[in-house]
Automatic annotation (TrEMBL):
A Gene Ontology BP annotation from the UniProt entry: spermatid development
Domain Glycosyltransferase 2-like stretches: 141-323
Cellular compartments annotated: Endomembrane system
Pfam short name (any one): Glycos_transf_2
TM segment ranges: 9-27
InterPro entries linked: GalNAc-T, Glyco_trans_2-like, Nucleotide-diphossugar_trans
Organism: Sus scrofa (Pig)
Protein's name in the database: Polypeptide N-acetylgalactosaminyltransferase like 5
Principal subcellular localization: membrane
Cofactor field: Mn(2+)
Lineage of origin: Eukaryota, Metazoa, Chordata, Craniata, Vertebrata
GO cellular component terms given for this protein: Golgi apparatus
Gene label: GALNTL5
Length: 446
């Protein structure tokens, strides 16, 4: 026992020493690069361009659940540390590599070597190859918001769209620059986008808005029939947009999401994901959940649209008029976090439907948390409280039992959202539990 304790103490000291050195290297490197502004908390790209991190499968009862990197709540104290995600083989002596991880959240050296475009494997089920879509589909406005994104990752997002999508169904790609600080996202970016002239609109916010309000800026300038929201570190796959547009043509109140394939943040390898659905727990943390076997039965098999209780925030398509009709985003929310669950509840409870389409695939760089940032936690807690007080009805007590410290915190004025719910004639949260997500009560019972 004594030897075990000594070994544990030595390991803890070594870990502390490694991270003291790493942060020393990072801040030294940051000061040396005089041509770039110091990265501040409010400007860190890890605030809202963080993707949901798909983890290895873990067993929860009889159900396998693919969980993302869980979002931090007000009562959580454990920090997500890079030592656990970069691995033993990571080269901790490469200062440029370390600096890139802290700056962008992924391996920018590999990203630079990949350039502006690459071929990615077709991750669709073979049955998807037999599907055909109408030639006269509606047009899409693809909205991509970015703040201090890595230059090549952003260009790969745009280039993959323009390379793999029929141009007649792209009304425009709207890039919303939310007050980026990096020089290569200004004149240099404009120069490289010239090749796509006629399809690209670049909007540069005059002040930092955060993801939620930046997307609203982009949506207000859109003229396509369908709004497609993508994160700024994606690579679309073959025939990705047609299934989304076709589904909305059949039902304008259907909101659809592609299956989110994983782009590894260390190697940037494109990895196909299994078909999973989006759910959440009583902390209002988004999670990936396995799809019930009966949903894959029938003639469509693994190509069948999957009913999903919740959407991941970064990738979805919605009819432009329907987006406006149901109240867009909650403008009272701050920065990033919770907007996906709020919109998911509003869709289901107010007469819409939310589906994942296995024949639409988009790769996404899944960035881990490198720091426990108080500003992110504060925004998430604030946004979650707005969800609780507008949409959860009597079940808000279930949330507060899990998060008692949040009960007394301010959440702003929600009267406009409460009025919206009444005006839309939305159903109760009890209806949502009974009809859409009954597993929430049983799998997360208090």
């Amino acid at each position: 026992m004594r030897n075990v304790i000594i070994q544990s103490l030595l390991y803890g000291s070594l870990t502390l020493g490694v991270w003291t050195a790493l942060f020393g290297i990072y801040f030294h490197h940051n000061n040396v690069k005089n041509q770039e502004k110091k990265i501040q908390t409010k400007g860190n790209p890890l605030i809202w361009s963080l993707g949901e991190k798909l983890q290895e499968q873990s067993i929860h009862g009889s159900m396998q659940i693919r969980r993302p990197r869980e979002r931090l709540n007000e009562d959580e104290t454990e920090e997500q540390k890079p030592i656990s995600v970069l691995g033993e083989d990571f080269n901790y002596t490469d200062t440029e590599l370390i600096y890139g991880y802290m700056k962008y959240g992924f391996n920018h050296i590999v990203s630079k070597s990949l350039g502006n475009y690459r071929n990615v494997p077709d991750s669709r089920n073979k049955m998807c190859h037999q599907k055909h879509y109408p030639a006269n589909l509606p047009t899409a406005s693809i909205i991509i918001c970015f703040h201090n994104e890595e230059f090549n990752a952003l260009l790969r997002t745009v280039s993959s769209i323009m390379t793999l999508t029929p141009h007649h169904i792209i009304e425009e790609i709207i890039l919303v620059d939310d007050m980026s600080e990096y020089d290569d996202l200004k004149e240099k970016l404009d120069y490289h986008l010239e090749i796509f002239r006629g399809k690209i609109k670049v909007i540069r916010n005059k002040k930092r808005e955060g993801l939620i309000r930046a997307r609203l800026v982009g949506a207000s300038r859109a003229s396509g029939d369908i709004l497609v929201f993508l994160d700024s570190h994606c690579e679309v796959n073959k025939i990705w947009l047609e299934p989304l547009l076709d589904a909305i043509v059949k039902d304008p109140k259907m909101v659809v999401c592609p299956i989110m394939d994983v782009i590894d943040y260390v190697t940037l390898e494109y990895k196909p994901s299994p078909v999973v659905r989006g759910v959440f727990n009583w902390h209002l943390q988004f999670e990936w959940d396995r799809v019930f076997s009966y949903e894959m039965d029938g003639p469509d098999g693994p190509t069948r649209p999957i009913r999903s209780p919740a959407m991941v925030g970064g990738l979805f398509a919605i009819h432009r008029h329907y987006f406006n009709e149901i109240g867009q985003y909650d403008k009272g929310m701050n920065l990033w976090g919770g907007e996906n669950l709020e919109l998911s509840l509003r869709i289901w409870m107010c007469g819409g439907q939310l589906f994942l389409l296995p024949c639409s695939r988009v790769g996404h760089i899944n960035k881990p948390y490198f720091t426990n940032q108080g500003e992110i936690k504060k925004a998430m807690a604030y946004n979650n409280l707005r969800i609780v007080h507008v949409w959860l009805d009597e079940y808000k007590e279930q949330f507060f039992l899990q998060n008692p410290r949040l009960k007394s915190l301010a959440y702003g004025n929600v009267s406009e959202r409460v009025e919206l719910r009444k005006r839309l004639g939305c159903k109760s949260f009890q209806w949502y539990l009974d009809t859409v997500f009954p597993e929430l009560e049983t799998s997360n019972s208090i």
